[in-house]
C-alpha cells in the first residue's frame, strides 16, 4: 500500500465548475500538507500549505485537512481553462534538523474545458 | 521571491557520457536541496537530499556512484548522472528548501529532461 493515494484522473470539468481533488494517506506521522500545481514539463508550484485540521482558503482555492480520517482535499471554485494542470498532494512528517522530506501523491490531471 | 533556477532544461547525450544538472536558488539561501525523478504521468520520486557542506543522503535504491550530488554553496547544488544509459532518461527536478513563517517550504525548479541515446 502506498503511503499517499491520489486518483490520477484524468478529470474533465466545464469552465466555472467547482473541482474537488482528494488524497488519502496512511502514515500518522504526516503533519504538514501541501498542494502543488504542475503544468506539463514544468516543475511543481506551491498552491496551498496547511498544518492543522480544518479549512484554509486562498482566493479560489480551499484546502481541507481531516487528520482523523487521514484525508485531504483541494477545492477550486469557478474553475478556469488556465487551471488545467496536474495537481499533486504532498505531505511531510515533523522532523528536527535537516530537510523536511515530502511524499507526493501520483497527481490528478485536471482539464477545464470551455 | 523564492525562485529556483534549473539548468539545462533539456539535454540529449550519448550512452556512456556524463551529464551535469545545476540547481540554483536565486533569491534565498538554501542549506537543503532535494533531487527528484519523475517518469511520464507518475509522481515525483525523491532521489536524494543535498545538504550544503556535507554528503548527500540518498534514498533506498538510488546508486550513489551513478548520481553524484554536490552542494558546494548555499545557492547551488549539482546532480551529475555518470555513464548515462537509456534507462536513465527521465525528468529530473530539484527543489530548494526555504524556512519562512515557521515552515520549511520547498520551491521547485522547472526540471531537466534527459534523453540518453
Q: What helical percentage do the residues of chain A reach?
A: under 10%
Q: Low-confidence runs of chain B (pLDDT<50, min 5 residues)?
A: none
* Shape, per Cα inertia axes of chain A: globular
Q: Specify which chain pair forms the largest interface.
A: A-B, 24 and 26 residues
Biggest sheet details of chain A: 6 strands, mixed
Q: Terminal Cα separation of chain B, in Å? A: 37 Å
Secondary-structure-based class of chain B equals mainly beta
- How much strand content do the residues of chain A show? over 45%
Distance between the termini of chain A: 37 Å
Give helix % range of chain B: under 10%
Summed up:
The complex is a heterodimer of chains A (114) and B (117). Chain A has 114 residues and is mostly beta strands. Chain A contains no helices and 11 strands.
Describe the structure.
Chain A is mostly beta strands. Helix content of chain A is 0%, strand content 55%. In chain A, strand 7 (61-66) and strand 8 form a beta hairpin. Chain A starts with a strand and ends with a strand. In chain A, 33% of the residues are buried. Chain B is an all-beta fold and 117 residues long. In chain B, 0% of the residues lie in helices and 57% in strands. In chain B, the strands form 2 sheets. In chain B, strands 2, 4, 5, 6, 9, 10 and 11 form a 7-stranded mixed sheet that branches. Chain B is globular. The model of chain B has no long low-confidence stretch (mean pLDDT 92). The chains are: A mainly beta (114), B mainly beta (117). Chain A binds chain B through residues 6, 8, 32, 36, 41-46, 49, 51, 88, 92, 98-102, 104-107, 109, and chain B through 4, 6, 32, 34, 41-44, 46, 49, 51, 57, 91, 93, 95, 97, 103-111, 113.
